[in-house]
Amino acid sequence: MQQIFKILWPDRKGFPAVLMFILLLGFSGYGQEITVSGTVTGAMDGIPFPGVNVIQKGTSNGVVTNMDGEFSIQVSPEAVLVFSYVGFKEQEVQVNGRNQIDVQLAEDLESLDDVIVVGYGTQKKATLTGSVSNIKGEDLMKSQAVNVSTSLAGRLPGLSVNQRSGAPGNEALDITIRGVGTFGDNNPLIIIDGVPREGVLERLNPADIESISVLKDGSAAIYGARAANGVILVTTKKGTPGETKFSLSYNYGITNPTKLPDMMDAALFAEVYNEAEFYRQGRPETGFEPFYSQEAIERYRDGSDPILYANTNWPAVALRDNTPQQRLNFQASGGSEKITYLLSYAGLKQEGNFINQPDNYKQHNIRVNVQAALTDDLTVGANISGIFQDRENSTGADFVSTLQANPTLVAVYPNGLIAPGRFNNNPLLSNRTGLNTTSNIPINSTFTASYEVPFLKGLALDASFNYDLRNQFQKNFSQPYEFHQYNVQTEEYDLRRTEDPVQLTNIYFKETSVLTNFRISYKTLIAYDHSIDAMLGTEQQKRAFSSASAYRRNFVSPAIRQIDAGSTDPDDKNNSGTAWENAYNNFFGRVNYNFKSKYLLEFVFRYDGSPIFPEGNRYGFFPGVSAGWRISKENFMADVSWVDELKLRASYGEMGNDRVSPYQFMQTFQFGNNYVFGGSDAPGIYSSTLPNANITWEVSKKFDVGLFAELWDGLFSADFTVFKEKRSNLLLQRSLSVSHLFGFPALPSENIGEVENSGFELQLSHQHSVGDFNYAVGGNVAYAKSNIIFMDEVPPAEPYQTQTGRPIGSGLYYKSDGIFNTQEELDNYPHGQGAQVGDIKVLDLNNDGQINGDDRYRANNSAIPEYVFGLSTDFSYKGFDLALFFQGQTNAYINDGTLNEFGLQDQDNATVFRATNRWTVDNQLGATMPRANDWQPGTTDFFLYDATFVRLKNLEIGYTLPANLLSGTGILEDIRIYANGTNLYTWAKEITYMDPEMVPSGDSGGTFTNYPPLRVLSVGAHINF
Amino acid sequence: MKKIEKKISKLLIVMSVLLGVSCEQDILEIEPQDRIVENAVWNDANLIRAYHTELFNGIPHGFSINLIGKYTDEMYNSTPCCGANLFALNTYNPDNIAQVGGGTNLNDFWAIGNGYMYNWDHAYIYIRKINLFLEKMEETDINLPDKDLWIAEAKFIRAYVYFNLIERFGGVPIVDEVYDLGDEVVFKRNTFEEVVAFIEQNLGEAKAVLPVKYGSTDRDYGRPTGDAAQALLSRVYLYAASPLFNSGNDQQKWQKAADAAEALINNGDYSLYPDYNGLFQLSQGDPQNETIFSRGFTSTNGQNFPMDYLNRRFGAYGGWWGSGGPSGNLVNDYEMLNGELPFLENGQVNPASGYDPQSAFENRDPRFNATIIHDGSIFRGIEFEMWISEDGAQWGYDSYKETGDNPRPNTVIKKFVPEEGTINWETPSTVQWIHFRLAEIYLNYAEAKFELGDEATAREYLNKVRSRQSVDMPDIPETVSGEELRQRIYNERRIELAFEGHRFFDVRRWEIADEVEEAPITTIDIYKDMSTGDKRYVEVILLDRSGTFQEHQSLFPIAQDEIQRNPELTQTPGY
What we know:
Oligomer: heterodimer
Number of strands of chain B: 12
Strand order of the largest sheet of chain B: 8-11-12
Largest sheet of chain A: 22 strands, antiparallel, barrel
Number of strands of chain A: 50
Radius of gyration of chain A: 33 Å
Shape of chain A: globular
Shape of chain B: globular
Largest sheet of chain B: 3 strands, mixed
Helix content of chain B: 25-40%
Number of helices of chain A: 11
Structural class of chain A: mainly beta
Strand content of chain A: over 45%
Distance between the termini of chain B: 93 Å
Radius of gyration of chain B: 28 Å
Number of helices of chain B: 19
């Protein structure tokens, strides 16, 4: 208990505030006129119902039914009485002066609003004990980002989504739940309609999504060995009984990169290059001949000679201004009491952001979900979806060859001919170099049967069979291409052609997954007070993958782009292939118990088996327990009418992480590393790691305490959770302490690491209506920070270098302190061999008079944000609605290694950000950036930037046509038109030269040359009929 | 009621069938699909052969994307990619040395990880692989007809790997057994002499079994031979006798070096390949009789040297990925056809040479044109143009002004690039990497003989190298002797073996790195008067290296974290 308090109030300062809060709940008081009495019975069995809350609506005046289900209350004759009991439908009854009112309470058939999807089932929000965040599909629809996962950023407290690239159909995302807890794979488990399905969430049709839940704590233990990183549960829509409803929506948008770095123009580039040359040549006092003469620089500047002295703004030349994107969505759903159905189609067409780049992404989503009650007790269902993805692109144009292209190179000659550009890689040539096409078709199917055993009410059997198939076919075709090059001697434009052969690679792969599961569940309510809900299940999954690829080159002609058309010479052909298999076998279960819906208990477990571990370590048991106390249900709270709900909950669970490469327990060999004898290839085999016979799961123990409050009839709600996670058995290579002299190839992972991870989540929401004006504000903030307890570190030279005790992903940096502005400064301070005036001043941390590796310190943060937050606001007035959504992060630090590549011999362009106020011979004292071609002893923290940002992620304005306008049509139900902006505006603290999100995680450093995330401006209409 | 029961029994049947079909008891019994389990390897002769074949990768070849020549005065390193600047400016130290070739991945395109510079990790991995192989061969019951040969070859490789270590680090720990994870071992450096003795022993045992020689068209050519073992011994002894490792100038060491070379010269059946240029375009299997040991390539297991080092004209990235061209320093060290060096030691033009800085590329040792493409060179029928007009507004297509793909020094390496056949990224080159050839043995011999005071023999073997049919340089006159002759021996080695991976280590073992590594990297810029067509040659400094080399950098440091893992392992002195 002490532990809980420590977590809740680490500094104990918050404690009095909580006491105050509880005391405040004691207000009440009202008058009365008549006495109403009656009996409450159960609708199902007609037995008297004790413990039902009977409250005069809008007041705190209330009583509870006695053991015989009877009540008596003093109210005004016009009052409305509210009868409520958790798990039963609330009833409101007008008194109308009556003295006797009898009521039958019916069991609450779970309405979607109050139900949250959890592992292998659903739970009522009110009695939920786990830490689960949840979002509805309609909220996701507010984003016009093509990738569904990016729409989750900031929406679910504790879930962090960073988009590292915006390449159409190929966005790179980092998704973590509650920060990171392992050195290895931190990706959460993604379950779609009950089945672990990878790579599908991003491509789902948002209109098909009913809800997304995120299991963050011990409640995820039901997913056992794969749950340590948290679980994302996606549920797709079903039809509802009733007349067929059609909905049709269309959206047209234009995309542009959120932020492109300002690159140097030709004149600035030339000046910087000259400076760097000067330093490279040892700053000669005389006879220095600059690479670019002063005259040349002038010509670059004045643009008088666009052929020999070009000033090319490559991004402007290579990128389209507004790239179109279109989405169409059609859905039909409905059904009878026996059969419901949902048919859905979505089409997406996204074009690439480069001119002359055949970069297209097309996606078609189809889904059929049919549920049929074959008998009164037996329901079967089929939910089948297919995602047809077609991506086309050439290898030519990317942001590296665009942003880093030398601005003194011509892109297009004044006569319209296209120049070679950097390394013949002019992005404008990319429609001539060949074409890569990828067709990826994941088909997911789920067949379910559920049988309610008629002779024992509450007993049910559920089974599901799931077959997933993914076929991908990729064709990489490249060919020689032509461009023109101005010949300075002849003053002609020579036609040049690259030397590459025509070549084609076809890659085909197939991945299947078969998952079956059976569940038996029993649900009962004993004496209205003891609710028991138990479930036991077993599941098996088998996955298989195989691939084959074929290659040929030297095609007679590029006209036929099939393997057969390639040369038949053995030297011109190649092929390869591989395969893997994997399986899971497990048992799982859950027991929920609650007393009067007031005291809640839950136990979940999974007994999980996986073949990637040795036989003795193959199975693991993962339990989770949680408890809740609905304080608002206590009698002493009965008078506190403004508290709708107050719940304290706590959970503990153990989970595993098995995302490591398989078979590490066996010594295995691979083919490869061939050698040559007598001019012939001789096959080789090699082993890449040593075996670890004892390898097993990483174990995560999660402890979680939360408080949920809903006040003033839903006007205000708050959810606060603190958590602590301890990860042990973390798989790490002992390479840090094992000498290379042993000659081990890569060491196996061993279960040696230990990491703690703790933090909190706070979610607040407020909604209100004033006349026709409605508004809702919701905010969430989550904090998570890891702390390495043990990782087999080599004892570092200095204590400030230890990684132990610091978060995962923290890097080693030399500490910079501005730059050596003057020679005097340089001479008077220790510096590394190679440092010159104008370089970054590195602090001699250990004061030994020299700069070496011992002067590096370990940062106390990493690229993984510690705080992520989101704020959504929704307004509506009559037919108008407006939604704004902000999202951001702080306490993340990014080291952008590419930013400092400046003035180097490779003639890559650099940013204006880097060039501004750099040290030069003429700008010494006030310089804030190091010189061109600067020297550093290693990675310094000079370019380690605070990646804090706040982004206006979505803004949507909509108008719903008045119903009376449409009623005349007789067909249309409603029409809404809207305008939407996604990734509209970003405020960044330090990373202002590029999109602050666009960096790889970990300490590998960042780069501004990735495909930036896209801003989407769109308009659309949604019609229901 | 009956109807319901019927339904239930139907359902139960369906469910039990489903359960029976889908619940496999042994679902977790999965054999790996894409790899071989160890037991299978040691019980299958073909897999043992494949294991043994892979051991040869313990000897890195030189066609890395970063030629070792970039790290010394042979080349200007125009892109400080991949840690190359550490060597270009001699800023390597225990903290950063492992950045360059410190890893163990043979297929690392950027060559950061393939062990070619900081060879430590790579070498000891292969030492363990070899030791494991030797242990398994003692245990095995399988009938392996080539077992003794394989063992001998493995010992040869082990000797070579240790040589690669000592030329970099001096004395290193000798590891000759297989350790497993968890074994407690205290590693200490053995002395340089102990390692030499270990190499000697391995080579002796190998030589006893290996065939003396494979013809260059033999299908086994490329495997170690008795001659290859002797050639390695010659190089090992030469290093051992050199000033860096022989501070007392022990003449016996020079004698061993001379004897080892002499034995190969006298007993070996080799001859200089007449065409110096053509020698470096040969693939394994081509007829020739100079190469003693080489690494071959095929079209599927090839190297990318031409694309890494040629220039834009061939769609190659010589100025960027290869990131360098031959330096002016090297160009200046080619003799004139008359056998005189163009420059005197004080840097002035040698009047006797007839060298004219304004026609810098004319009348040079034929090996110059065979090794380096320069302004005016004709290669593959194309005249290279590396000039810039006097006003700077125009330039030749191969000029560095045209593109970053053209190496800055206005020079491109010609050595190792085939004169004929397709060159593009998709067609790997099959030109072999020569580990040992007769000319090196001659030069080893000449150097050792010189240091033993036998100047006549030294001159004789120097002259043999110089009189190769296509080279035919005048003999070193008898008037050249003493220190002057030593410098000629050094320079002959520099020229004959340019870019073959020797220079970096030669200047260190000769202890002349303090001069060579401090000298600025230069080149010759060519300015063309567009009206007359006259060209003007200007020598420019590309990289100032003064004050960069420290004496202890003649040997590599051991990476700092490796020192910390091994409390008994001493750091290379000076670091």
